[in-house]
Amino acid sequence: AYERRFPTCPLIPMFVASDTVNEYKSEDEAIHVIERRCKLDIDAPRLLKKIAGVDYVYFVQKNSLNRRERTLHIEAYNETFSNRVIINEHCSYTVHPDNEDWTCFEQSASLDIKSFFGFESTVEKIAMKQYTSNIKKGKEIIEYYLKQLEEEGITFVPRWTPPVACKSESSTFHPRRPVSPAINIPESATKEGLSNKEILNTPSSPSEPTAGTPDDKLDADYIKRYLGDLTPMQESCLIRLRQWLQETHKGKIPKDEHILRFLRARDFNIDKAREILCQSLTWRKQHQVDYILDTWNPPQVLQDYYAGGWHHHDKDGRPLYVLRLGQMDTKGLVRALGEEALLRYVLSINEEGLRRCEENTKVFGRPISSWTCLVDLEGLNMRHLWRPGVKALLRIIEVVEANYPETLGRLLILRAPRVFPVLWTLVSPFIDDNTRKKFLIYAGNDYQGPGGLLDYIDKEIIPDFLGGECMCEVPEGGLVPKSLYRTAEELENEDIKLWTETIYQSASVFKGAPHEVLIQIVDASSVITWDFDVCKGDIVFNIFHSKRAPQPPKKDSLGAHSITSPGGNNVQLIDKVWQLGRDYSMVESPLICKEGESVQGSHVTRWPGFYILQWKFHSMPACATTNLPRVDDVLASLQVSSHKCKVMYYTEVIGSEDFRGSMTSLESSHSGFSQLSAATTSSSQSHSSSMISR
């Protein structure tokens, strides 16, 4: 029935024509693979077609029929604009394992828009519209051709049986002639895919799609080229942590190099590495750190008086950052800018460092995952020990240590004066032991002797202010004019402004006190979308509908829980006298979300009225294997905070007319960790699901 769609299908107007590119049949007729080049007339604005310079779009589709396994797999990818847009679609027809009269159908697709003449969002909407249309018509079309076969008297196809000569063959058949494969989609794109599952003829029957798992072994050339030397145990840890991230942080997976940094920082203890990595991913998302290089311009004061900058690379190929701390007026910078602006500037330096590591990995052909920092302390004095300045420095160290582990390959401290031991005593306790081992400290001119600077940096690039011949463009620093100083009140307001530039909100969830968000829907068939991270504890996510408006929200005042985190509010809307089923109803099945999970989803509203999104505390069940409490449970019970959860969330309502064009909101796409994932910053990835997707 499926083959009757070719070479063209009147039920699919956009399907203009198709040509067979490659075809293979096994000798025992069990395997039949056919590859076609399909010509499509996409429903796109005429202006967009004119700009793109095409009237038709070409896709390559490969159908693999395995009569032995009783499966039909269909793969398709775009040939047109494949360097700008990557579309990959997969469909499969299989026999249900429990009932041979049922045919299971599974369909998934991924979309990765790298660039498209500035019309990325338009292309996304067009692609999503076409995909939605295909989902609706897919079953209709296959049933049309099944009925056509029945009218022709074809109601039964005999099951394949192996010829006598082939009975000893393995159940897995390997074609002798290669068939060109579908395009290789980046892992992050396939994870952030579109999905639609159903069973033909019996929609209510269960289906068990095969879950994808990462390879249990990485390619040796890939490891050597991008990751460096790994023992089998370390490789296994990386794969297991990446698999866990794929299951819980759909579409937001950092690159292997970055996951590896967190594993190395915790000596490949997966539980510890997972904890700090999840905290870091949540932090990046909340403060939009991925976009800092593209959206934030440092104030002119920093550009003029911050005596630091990138300067070539060291002998190992690591990017080299030069900081003339002794020439920098830390007190003046703090008084003129405040802690937050300084912290944001340091974050931008670290983000630039990650980018330069990637570039140098390509240039030198070997993995480079860290940078070298050269700190010149000439001029350091008691002014640098000003208490607010030291406090700002300690906070910066704390944030960098938590979110950029194993990025400092070596720290060269030159011309350390007598006051340096005082500063070192204050700072060193906040620096990780592994990081401290990378410090090399030189007093006076010792850096010029054996074991000095020349062992780590080529003579040609030693900065001129250290006696070298290379002109260094790092600002010379100097005193910040007092006319640029700002009052404490001005700085405080500016600090709040800097760190509230986020589309996400934080909420605390307590035992017996859920957090609830009210959404009023005027037009039925609107779409409520959500994106949230469970930062602490386990929660249950619910969606309710009510025809009556709840009472004005009241802040929960649980003094015993001492809510101190900024923005960590707790709002309850459902009155205690309300009864489920009478005053309000549940419109989605409850979803249990574990600590560290990232959840995205949408709900198409059926009625106008008031919808309530609820995050509720989830109590862990008692251990089934033993009546004895675990050590972790005992420790948790001793802390009041064990009854507190924290979520970070974003919600948006999309009109039904917009939903048909795009199943994801443009704002929701901000949640991707673009700088750390395989996708580029300009990439726009979409996914849709009729259920909550994790």
Description:
By secondary structure, the chain is α+β, with helices and mostly antiparallel strands. It folds into four domains: 2-152, Alpha-D-Glucose-1,6-Bisphosphate, Chain A, domain 4 (2-Layer Sandwich); 220-287, N-terminal domain of phosphatidylinositol transfer protein sec14p (Helicase, Ruva Protein, domain 3), CATH 1.10.8.20; 290-483, CRAL-TRIO lipid binding domain (Phosphatidylinositol Transfer Protein Sec14p, 3-Layer(aba) Sandwich), CATH 3.40.525.10; 504-550 and 570-619 and 642-667, Sandwich (Jelly Rolls), CATH 2.60.120. The chain is 28% helix and 24% strand. The protein has 17 helices and 24 strands. Strands 1, 2, 3, 4, 5, 6, 7 and 24 form an eight-stranded antiparallel beta sheet that branches. Strands 8-9-10-11-12 form a five-stranded mixed beta sheet, covered by helices on one side. Strands 14, 16, 19, 20 and 22 form a five-stranded antiparallel beta sheet that branches. β10, α12 (387-403) and β11 (408-416) form a beta-alpha-beta unit. The two termini are 35 Å apart. The relative contact order is 0.10.
Q: Tags for this entry?
A:
4 domains, globular, Phosphatidylinositol Transfer Protein Sec14p, alpha+beta, Helicase, Ruva Protein, domain 3, 694 residues, 17 helices, eight-stranded antiparallel beta sheet, Alpha-D-Glucose-1,6-Bisphosphate, Chain A, domain 4
